[in-house]
Specification:
about 45% helix; DUF3093 domain-containing protein; DUF3093; about 180 residues; transmembrane; elongated; 5 helices; membrane; alpha+beta; about 20% strand; 4-stranded antiparallel β-sheet; single chain
């Protein structure tokens, strides 16, 4: 089996053009405050608003996806790959209905609006009330193929472990019938 300790990693950061509008808006707000106040209060909005905008944008784009050590990590949530079921790649046109009218309220969702594609991963864990996960990813085909491969390997190894039980002789049907029927 190949080493899958760090099979996939992706950071859902904000694209460079996604930084422009918030920074321009923070600059315009700082300039508006600057025009109304002389002295220290004139430059203070620039010192506060521009770094605050940078910190917020950086924080929004810190989310990570990874497949490591047999688990799928989406943000802070993680799922063992043995519980990965059917995987659907959601393109630009499929993502909107999947996140809108077709969304199950019990589903786990990690949506980033600046990423046009997503994956929907069905869960096979009978103890988990979450039916599926939907999460944004820039490389949905690559991640889907990796998850299919790893979940198939996990299921195959689990079935092999179940098949390799201790060799216990199975009694004949006549022997078991004689042992269970009371003597007359």
């Amino acid at each position: 089996m190949p080493d899958t300790s760090n099979a996939y990693a992706e950071r859902l950061s904000v694209t460079w053009w996604g930084w422009l509008m918030p920074l321009v808006a923070a600059g315009l707000l700082a300039a508006e405050i600057h025009m109304g106040y002389p002295g220290v209060r004139a430059w203070l909005p620039y010192v506060v608003l521009l770094p605050l905008t940078l910190v917020i944008l950086y924080g929004v784009g810190r989310t990570r996806l990874k497949v490591a050590d047999g688990e799928l990590w989406v943000g802070e949530a993680h799922l063992p790959v043995r519980f990965v079921g059917e995987i659907d790649v959601l393109g630009v046109h499929e993502k909107r209905p999947a996140l809108g009218r077709d969304l199950d309220p019990a589903a786990y969702v990690l949506h980033k609006g600046w990423i046009p594609t997503a994956l929907r991963v069905q869960l096979t864990d009978p103890d988990d009330p979450t039916p599926y996960w939907i999460f944004s990813t820039r490389k949905p085909e690559q991640l889907a193929e990796l998850l299919r491969t790893l979940s198939g390997q996990a299921r195959d190894s689990r079935h092999a472990d179940l098949d390799e039980g201790p060799d216990v002789p199975v009694p004949d049907a006549e022997e078991s019938a004689q042992q269970t029927t009371p003597g007359v």
